[in-house]
Amino acid sequence: MKATAAAVVALLAVCVLSLSLGARAIPLDQVAGALAGTVTDQDVLDVIWSVRVPRTLVGILAGAALGLSGALMQALTRNPLADPGVLGVSAGSAFAVVLGIGVFGVAAPAGFVWFAFAGALVASVVVYALAGLGRDGMTPLKLALAGVATTFLLSSVTSAFVLVDPESLSRYRFWSAGSLSGAGGELLPQLLPFVAVGALLALTCGPALNSLALGDDVARGLGRRIGLVRLRGAAAVMLLTGSAVAAIGPVVFVGLVVPYVARALARGGGRSEADHRLLLPLAALLGPCLLLTADVLGRVVAPPIEVQAGLLVAFVGGPFFVVLARRRRLAEL
């Protein structure tokens, strides 16, 4: 409970900074007044309600989706280095968005949602179909290999498509950098149902994931239906990652680093193994903390230019992840 409470406090603090800091810094008392409706300055109201509130809400939604899907994916594959890119979900979304831009002329972020989500759906189905081939059925190793192969294939086709269409290259380059600056309130009603269903599927997987952590044979002995658990988890990953990527682009490292931090917190209090009933909610809370922190830093690190949150997450997350990967305990998931 202490870890969960600390994560909630951290998220609230980051949200306050997200509403206050930017090209125009707004004092906290004016932020509170704008939210309460007691401020009459129209410029302040416009900045808070038209720009920063939607941007912060989309950041919370996308960060929670990425953190939760990363934790779920690592638990399903029992691979602490797994991330949404491994299973081809991000590559499928990117490929579909490029098609939407180049073939159908989609330009607004709200239009990316359906293409990115469809791409994530198709890529996930292909990966799981490939991983299920063979005598032994689906295994974590086959799932990862199928995902990597699909990712490379889709990335190659996407690059080839973009290179022959300069207009697509320009629009795709901004989206693929991962930014919350274009996030508007119109995205929320489109994304919320998918994220809600994905989160519900993921959070209800907690007890089964605790059994899977003991090995497939032990999990079967405990009465778990392994295939059904993995199928439900895959559906949750598809919904969560597809929605997040559609909104802000293929941001990396949120789904990698956040589950590790959540796992460390969930192992506190003398527990030797993380309880996924605690780990998954923690990942959903810590994901927005990381994404919104990167977004706020991107606004103030090189004014008046805004640096995309995806670039800052990669800049910080890359070295951090290398350090984590070299630790022996990381391989003991």
UniProtKB/TrEMBL annotation:
Keywords: Cell membrane, Membrane, Signal, Transmembrane, Transmembrane helix, Transport. It is found in: Cell membrane. GO terms for biological process: siderophore-iron import into cell. It is a multi-pass membrane protein. GO terms for cellular component: plasma membrane. Its main location: membrane. It holds the Pfam family FecCD. GO terms for molecular function: transmembrane transporter activity. The chain crosses the membrane at residues 49-73, 85-106, 112-131, 143-164, 191-214, 235-258, 309-326. InterPro entries: ABC_BtuC-like (IPR037294), ABC_transptr_permease_BtuC (IPR000522). It comes from the Bacteria. Residues 1-25 form the signal peptide. SUPFAM superfamilies: ABC transporter involved in vitamin B12 uptake, BtuC. Belongs to the binding-protein-dependent transport system permease family. FecCD subfamily. This is ABC-type Fe3+-siderophore transport system, permease component. The lineage of its organism: Bacteria, Bacillati, Actinomycetota, Actinomycetes, Streptosporangiales.
